[in-house]
Amino acid sequence: MNAVVHADYAPQGAPIRIAVFDDRIEIENPGLLPFGLTIEDIMRGVSRLRSRVIGRVFRELHLIEQWGSGIERMTSACVEAGLAPPRFEEAGMHFRVTIFTAKVKQPHADEVDQRILAIFRDGAPRSTAAVAKKVGLSQRATLTRLKALASRGLLVEIGTGPHDPKRQYVLA
Q: Which of 100, 105, 113, 117 is the most interior residue, by most CB within 10 Å?
């Protein structure tokens, strides 16, 4: 989503490119960082949208939570999964993010994940909405964390499918 929101759409025929390799995923979008913005700036959460319209639409659709949080969320997700932090670079006239897929350490549960897991210690199944309310996150952010905890084998999904509105989670 960051690539779509931040791409430079002025050069015609310059697509957003996603390349999957054995050891990494590269997401490359056309355009360098906006003038005056550095990689160090974006690592600190500084953000400048090329298109406020695209940014506003994504925010209204709840596809992004707030401007300037994507890099930190990406980095946190990688580290929490036991992966190396992503690499950000300007290459030619493109901006590239490399996400490494090799584990560098065991995934750990951060403070929010620990709070989520604590909610389930009584053994009762809970919905995404119920967990979101208890931890104070949006339902989208909570769902992302619940799915990550389930993929790591810490929670189990109960439901008829991934789009089941009555899907719940229970401690594994």
A: 113
Say how many CA atoms lie within 13 Å of 111 toward its Cβ: 2
Burial of 138: CB neighbours in 10 Å, binned 0-12, 13-18, 19+: exposed
Residue 33 tokens, joined: 């960082």
Q: Are 143 and 126 in contact (CB under 8 A)?
A: no
Place of tokens 């160090």: 40
**pLDDT tens digits for 10-52?**
888 889 999 999 999 999 999 898 888 888 888 888 888 888 8
Instruction: Look up residue 25 and give its amino acid.
Output: I
Does the pLDDT of residue 99 top 80, yes or no? Answer: yes
Percent of the chain residues topping a pLDDT of 90: 28
Can you read off the two tokens belonging to residue 58?
A: 């994504």
> For residues 25 and 41, is the Cβ–Cβ distance under 8 A?
no
